[in-house]
Specification:
Length: about 300
């Protein structure tokens, strides 16, 4: 068995274990345990710790602050996993206990009032999975675009958690069917959510972020070009009181000159700019445990 396959099996086992105890124990107790787990993971996983520290070195200047932020990143991620595996416990009458506010909800409502759907753009920042649940529990029809996972069982686990909250899932691939399904959801005046900070399919577009030239996924910029839907950057971030703040930005200004390549480049850079803004504000909630700037570097 390859080390990568073993790693994914252990990951699935770990998620199942957290979910088991998370359904028996209260959230506050699970979070206290998560702090200990996060610190332990930070202490013993030297390679992952170095990867996070290297990424943060592109964002922060003070070495002492980089070290502290690295440690907090592991703690926040442990808390993220607790809520992620407990998504099925959320209902309309209790999810507001986890939310301190929803800033910018009017941008989403205004977009849907136009009848052309809206694209919710987010990143591996805060708790993007909980954001989908929150939107669904507030009555929005939501479709999530996801990339296929390396481990099939882990991919199925993630899809099942979303579908239990009546979130529709489209697995993105190279077939025309997946693209048509996305456009059909927008035509039905639904919200379509996708992550936009990691290029995973080998079809990236170069942008500048944190003074580094990297490849971003072309999907978000291409999707707004193919549809008439607006693109709303939206992030779900954890406060110090362990509640979530949902923030929807005003729709991103989109360039549509008719020059395909130029429009994609300009719009992708505008997406990168808003990503940089939020990651810089919440660097300890950007969950990227690999050498991001080297893997996605654009020459």
């Amino acid at each position: 068995m390859s080390s990568k396959r073993l790693l994914f099996r252990l990951g699935l086992f770990y998620l199942t274990l957290i979910g088991f105890f998370g359904h028996l124990l209260p959230r506050w107790l699970m979070f206290r345990m998560a702090v200990l787990v996060g610190i332990f993971y930070w202490a013993v996983m030297k390679k992952d710790r170095e990867m996070v520290r290297r990424n943060l070195g592109q964002i922060l200047d003070n070495p002492l602050e980089i070290d502290k932020t690295t440690r907090r990143t592991f703690i926040h991620y442990a808390k993220y996993l607790v809520d992620y595996t407990r998504m099925d416990l959320l209902r309309e009458n209790n999810f507001f206990r986890l939310v301190s506010g929803f800033q910018g909800k009017e941008h989403i409502d205004r977009a849907l009032a136009q009848g052309k759907g809206a694209i919710i753009l987010t990143a591996h920042l805060g708790n993007w999975e909980m954001g989908g649940v929150f939107l669904r529990l507030m009555g929005y029809s939501l479709t999530v675009i996801t990339a296929p996972d390396v481990a099939a069982r882990l991919h199925e686990y993630r899809i099942r958690l979303r579908q239990e909250q009546k979130i529709k899932v489209i697995t993105l691939n190279d077939t025309l069917a997946s693209s048509l399904a996305v456009l059909q959801a927008l035509k039905g005046n639904e919200l379509v959510a996708l992550l936009g900070d990691r290029e995973l399919l080998g079809k990236g577009i170069p942008v500048e972020i944190f003074s580094q030239r990297v490849f971003f996924p072309v999907g978000p910029a291409l999707l707004v070009r193919l549809s008439e839907a607006v693109l709303i950057p939206t992030f779900v971030l954890m406060n110090e009181d362990d509640k979530y703040l949902c923030r929807a930005e005003p729709p991103l200004s989109i360039q549509r000159t008719g020059n395909r390549d130029e429009d994609l480049a300009v719009n992708a850079q505008r997406i990168a700019n808003v990503m940089e803004k939020f990651i810089r504000s919440y660097p300890d909630q950007w969950f990227t445990f690999y050498d991001y700037f080297s893997r996605h570097r654009a020459l």
